[in-house]
Amino acid sequence: MSKHYAVFGHPVAHSLSPRIHTAFGRQTGIPVDYAAIDAEPGQFVHALGDFASRGGVGANVTLPLKQAAFSLCDDLTERARRAGAVNTLVRNGDTWHGDNTDGAGLVRDLTDRHALDLRARRTLLLGAGGAARGVAPALLDAGIGDLYIVNRTAQRSDALADALGEPGRVHPRYLQDLPSMGEFDLIINATSAARDGGIPSLPRSIIGPRCAAVDLNYGEVAILFLAWARASGCHDVVDGLGMLVEQAAASFALWHGVRPETDAVYDSLLARHDALVTA
Ligand code: NDP
């Protein structure tokens, strides 16, 4: 049976992952059959089982399914376990092995492509969903300073802080605390709020003199937050396109044993997105 790969999400039609993995396949000479499969949370387990029975051996998982993917894995990498969320599934016999490449992808994009020194940055993470869970452990490992997690639903920021297990360094806080939380050196928007047309209300007082703002979203979905950051005086402003390409390259390496080169794929997507955003 030929091998199939896919990204599962809901919605997923917008996903750039099929285009990225096809480009990596072309570059490395590895034939890649990679589809986008829409699965509502209640149907995910069934859809994944069906995929496996048709020769599915590897999958990416995007919102809102990363925590569900974590729960169905038979074994996990250490970084997926710490995140409590899975973005990459590898078929292992009759079972699924789970990994999370989001955090490594973000750190690689920020430090290598954008030359940001993350060390000792007082960091604000907005959101506590699957993406926030994926990036938080990698940011801590990259040497950021204290990490403050603020989410619309407070229980989820509390749960993420508990899972990270560094009480002296990781602090869950409430949205209403933002005006009294002081200045940050790094602010990361890991919410999907802009998909519904808005971003959380943010006071300008949270922006420190060397503050970098990062939106894990990209293209039109990142415009609101990054425009706010620029207008409020942020020094560096980065969207999530590079993270998307880097996490995909890490997934590709897990499945095919070869790490593709990412700059050409990033540049071509950037050109396409600039065109979309300015159109
Ligand atoms: P989830 O559905 O798991 O989590 C969504 C998060 O956004 C939650 O923290 C949720 O808060 C918050 N949120 C949603 N709507 C609002 C709102 N109106 N106001 C305030 N907070 C809100 O999604 P993911 O974590 O998987 O993804 C988050 C975003 O990151 C997505 O838009 C996704 O596309 C992007 N992403 C980008 C990646 C990349 O490679 N560049 C990789 C992964 C994700 P609550 O808990 O209260 O519901």
- Helical stretch count? 10
What is the annotated CATH architecture of the largest domain?
A: 3-Layer(aba) Sandwich
Average predicted confidence as pLDDT: 95
Radius of gyration: 18 Å
Which class best fits the helix and strand makeup?
alpha/beta
Q: Looking at CATH, which topology of the largest domain would you report?
A: Rossmann fold
**Low-confidence region ranges:** none
* Strand proportion: 15-25%
The hetero compounds bound to this protein are:
NADPH dihydro-nicotinamide-adenine-dinucleotide phosphate
Largest sheet features = 6 strands, mixed
Overall structural domain count: 2
Please identify which CATH superfamily of the largest domain we are dealing with: NAD(P)-binding Rossmann-like Domain
The top level CATH class name of the largest domain: Alpha Beta
Number of beta-strand segments: 12
- Terminal CA distance reads 43 Å
Write the SSE topology.
Blueprint: E1 4-9, H1 17-28, E2 34-38, H2 44-53, E3 56-61, H3 66-72, E4 75-76, H4 78-83, E5 88-92, E6 95-99, H5 102-113, E7 123-126, H6 130-141, E8 147-150, H7 154-164, E9 170-173, E10 184-189, E11 207-215, H8 223-231, E12 236-238, H9 241-256, H10 263-278
Parallel strand pairs: 1-2, 1-3, 4-6, 7-8, 7-10, 8-9, 10-11, 11-12
Antiparallel strand pairs: 3-5, 5-6
Helix pairs in contact: 1-9, 5-6, 5-9
The protein binds NADPH dihydro-nicotinamide-adenine-dinucleotide phosphate.
Write structural notes for this entry:
- 40% of the residues lie in helices and 21% in strands.
- By secondary structure, it is of the alpha/beta class.
- It has two domains: 4-101 and 245-262, Rossmann fold; 103-241, NAD(P)-binding Rossmann-like Domain (Rossmann fold), CATH 3.40.50.720.
- It has a six-stranded mixed sheet, with helices on both faces.
- Helix 1 packs across helix 9 (241-256).
- Bound molecules: NADPH dihydro-nicotinamide-adenine-dinucleotide phosphate (NDP).
